[in-house]
Fold this sequence. Notes:
Elements: H1 3-17, E1 21-24, E2 30-32, E3 38-39, E4 45-46, H2 48-71
Antiparallel strand pairs: 1-2, 3-4
Amino acid sequence: MSETIDMLKEEWDVLVEIGWVDFISKEGDVKLNRGAMMKADNGEYINSKTLEQMFKEVFIVIGDYMLKTYNDSFYAHRGYF
Length: 81
């Protein structure tokens, strides 16, 4: 698997682990906590709307992984969905 895919999976895992993923659909629609943001390698911050779009596009490649990771998480079973 490519280094980029591995890196995206790691970033997704971080978002899931800290509870920033509010929802993900089987179609790839991702809804993140409004406060979600990440720092890019160049030092700039990526806001939640940009991250949602990025992961919606990535869903084509790693969608099954994203769904499984989220559905197996504590946050998917906290009763809000």
